[in-house]
């Protein structure tokens, strides 16, 4: 199975060239800052990348550090990120996290998974993304809805929740590919392997995919 997984991931690496990067990956590539990765990831929750990315860029032009966001008036922060879903709650959480980073971690985002999980509003996906793409740490797989959906469709796992998918994937995916799983599956999921009516006829791994649970496709 691991040979098949490696073959599929290599095919996705090739086919994803030219596809838009997920907003968080784009922020990481352009700004290379764990704090900005953390904030943009929080902004991206239940929000489309087309909204997350410009909102993140706008915020970082005004306040690009934990110290600046911590001292930023809450209403101004809300107005700045307003296009994102649940912007009021996210603004409050980002401000609180920024204060904690300043007061407890001297302005630096901790590079410890459990420490990240202590921040209110940071779940396993966000913590894994910060560890992987913010700090460049190995040993983590960030699982969102795309990773959960596609890995089940491929038959790599048979799980009901993203958290269970994370642990199941670590048992079958060769460790050298863990870094790439989230980015590849997000790009593939946004453009080809849609939740409803996936574009199987255009899929580069169509012949390798058992299409578990797929009904109507294109």
Which descriptors would you attach to this protein?
single chain; 218 residues; mainly alpha; Endonuclease Iii, domain 2; Endonuclease III, domain 1; 12 helices
Question: Can you walk through the features of this model?
Answer:
The chain folds into 2 domains: 87 residues, Orthogonal Bundle (Endonuclease Iii, domain 2), CATH 1.10.1670.10; 112 residues, Orthogonal Bundle (Endonuclease III, domain 1), CATH 1.10.340.30. It is 59% helix and 0% strand. The two termini are 27 Å apart.
Topology:
Blueprint: H1 2-15, H2 23-31, H3 34-44, H4 49-62, H5 66-70, H6 74-80, H7 87-105, H8 113-117, H9 124-134, H10 145-153, H11 162-172, H12 178-191
Q: Rough shape? A: globular
CATH superfamily of the largest domain: Hypothetical protein, domain 2
CATH class of the largest domain, anyone? Mainly Alpha
Count of separate DSSP helical elements:
12
CATH architecture of the largest domain: Orthogonal Bundle
Domains (count)? 2
Give the helix level as a range of percent: 55-70%
- The name CATH uses for the topology of the largest domain is Endonuclease III, domain 1
Q: Structural class per helix/strand content?
A: mainly alpha
What is the β-strand count? 0
Radius of gyration: 18 Å
Largest sheet: none
Please indicate the percent range of residues in DSSP E strands (runs of 2 or more). under 5%
Q: What series of H and E elements makes up the topology? A: HHHHHHHHHHHH
- Rounded mean pLDDT is 95
- Alpha carbon gap, first and last residue: 27 Å
Point out poorly predicted stretches: none
